[in-house]
Structures are given as C-alpha cells and as structure tokens.
Design brief:
By secondary structure, the chain is α/β, with parallel strands linked by helices. It has eleven helices and 14 strands. The longest helix has 22 residues. It is globular. It binds ligand NAX.
Amino acid sequence: MTINIAVTGAAGQIGYALLFRLASGALAANQPVSLRLLEVTPALPALDGVEMELRDCAFPLLREIIKTDDAETAFADADVVFLVGARPRGPGMERKDLLEANAAIFSAQGKALNAAAKKTVKIIAVGNPANTNCLIARANAPDLPDSAFSAMTRLDHNRAIAALADKTNNPLSAIRQVMIWGNHSATQYPDLHHASVAGAAALSLVDEAWYQNTYIPEVQQRGAAIIKARGASSAASAASAALDHMRDWHNGETAADDVLSMAIVSSGQYDISPGLVYSYPVRTSGGAATVVENLPINDFSRARMQASEQELIEERDAVRHLLP
Ligand code: NAX
C-alpha cells in the first residue's frame, strides 16, 4: 500500500536533503511513496524545480508528487507528516515575536491535520521552536490522539552518541542508552548516567569534568557551531535525524538494552508537567513509542531536567493566549 508522506517547508534546505531519501524508500522499504509537499505561495516556483529533480532520479517507488500551498490538501489522508517549515528569526525579532509567528503557522497546520490527516497519522515537528510548535499543533487537533504528535530531538541524540564514540574511541555500535531530556534548545540535557560503551558505564570511561563542562555544552551548542562553520544551519544531518526518528517510530523495534530520544506529549512521566512536549528516552515497537520509566535520576540530572522543563513552560505561557 502507498504511504502518504507530507512535508512542509519542502523547498527549504532540510526539505532538499529529506525528500530524495523519502522518495528512494528509506522510510519504509519497498512501500510505494506519495509525496505531498507544502510551501508558502512565493516558494512554489522553487518547489517546481525540486519536483523536476525528484522525477529525474527515476525512483521506482515514487508514485506521486503533490505540490500545494494549502495545508489541508497536503495533509489529506497523510500517514506520516514532517512539519519542517517554520518562520526563521528575522532582524530585530524578539523571542516572543518568533514564538507568536510560529504559533500562527502551527495553529493553522494543527487544524488542517485534524481535518484531513488519517487518525493514525504520525507527526514530527522539526521547525523551531520545535517542541512548542508541536504543542500548538497538538492543541489545535482535538480529534487526534496525543500519541500522533512528536518533536525532533533525534539530531541532538545522534550528536550525543557520535561525540561519545569519538571521545572513547569506540564504534557507534558500541554505544547504548544515551538520552536527551527536555527542549530542543540550549537547555536540553544530554544524559550519560545510564549510557554504556561496549558494556562499560560511560561515566566510568570519561572524566566527570569533561562530561559536565565540555560534552554537555558541546552537544547543546552543536547547532550554533555548525552555523558558524558552514554559514548555514544543519540540513543534511537534520534531515537524516528526522528520517531516523520517523523510520524507528513507523516500523522500528528498539533493542531492549537501548533507547531513542523523542519529544512527545508528556503525561507526567518523571514529574514533568503534563501536556508539555518534552524529550524523553523512549523505545519503539509496533508503531508506538513508549517512555522508558523508572530510571534512577540523581540531583544533577533532576536540576537539568527541570531547567529545560521551565523553559518549555515559559514558551507555552508566551503563546497561551493563542491556544484554543
Ligand atoms: P529553510 O529556511 O531553508 O526552509 C524553510 C522552508 O519553510 C522555506 O522554504 C519556507 O518557505 C517554508 N515555510 C515557511 N513557512 C511555511 C508555512 N507556513 N508552510 C509551509 N512552508 C513554510 O529552513 P531549514 O534549514 O530547512 O530549516 C527548517 C526548520 O528546521 C527551521 O525552523 C530550523 O530552525 C529547524 N531545525 C530544527 C532542528 C531540530 O533538531 N529540531 C535542527 C535543524 C534545523 O535548525
């Protein structure tokens, strides 16, 4: 059966890195793909060019490309939705202005998802501020379950694994149970207290000062470092992480000795305020993502988890007047 995949912001740089992999069948092996691409009206000509390139790849699984500036058309019968398009911070824009501009976009898209997507849809918010954009879309889609919504911290998770493998001189496959808590922002908490490297506790292999003063800030600030080096924000790695997130959720089975990081609608796990879109350690199975509960949390971790929660509460409160 064809999988209907909607991508917003499809003519942007993450879109450009994501669409070709989706069209090649990287999300669901051997499943025919219908791509539904949403853009703002002025970007539709650029999207025509992307469509030409997609067609020129002659991907055998790519059965249909729909380009539109209408959200309901893009989300009609969607199985999987990548909410990538968002308003970037413009000159002189305050954080609050940015939150409000995105609240308008994600309210409208939440309503369109509610009206048009399959009830079994899986949605990932990538566009920033990703967690709060997801919360806004969720609030505007009363007929969809909480479990339909997620926001991306998989790029942070992948960065955290890669940095630990590098530091300990081990292959990526030796790393287990690295996790990101909280917001996809500089308050995110990359937690190594449960992580292992080739079976040994990660924190027994690295210096505590390195973990606290180098590793944590480097993972938190990796996006800024890439902008500084490349003159543009992460695109290929972000697209790759979005694909990892959705592939594992859609039809992956997380190993019993590992976790993934995914921001989901909290139902209060680890005493986080219910309703916030908060990144947790999860395992996926049978198309569902479940928070890994009952991990012991020490004071160091608790303080960082709460600081990120506090930031998410402030973001939510800044747009509360726009929520239904
Ligand atoms: P670009 O500016 O290249 O592309 C964004 C595209 O979205 C543009 O083509 C724009 O026309 C479109 N767009 C804007 N409003 C729209 C709307 N209402 N409906 C449909 N399309 C709309 O940005 P890009 O580099 O692709 O990044 C996209 C988003 O991902 C940004 O918000 C960025 O901050 C965010 N990121 C999130 C990451 C994460 O880990 N969660 C990491 C990477 C990235 O920074």
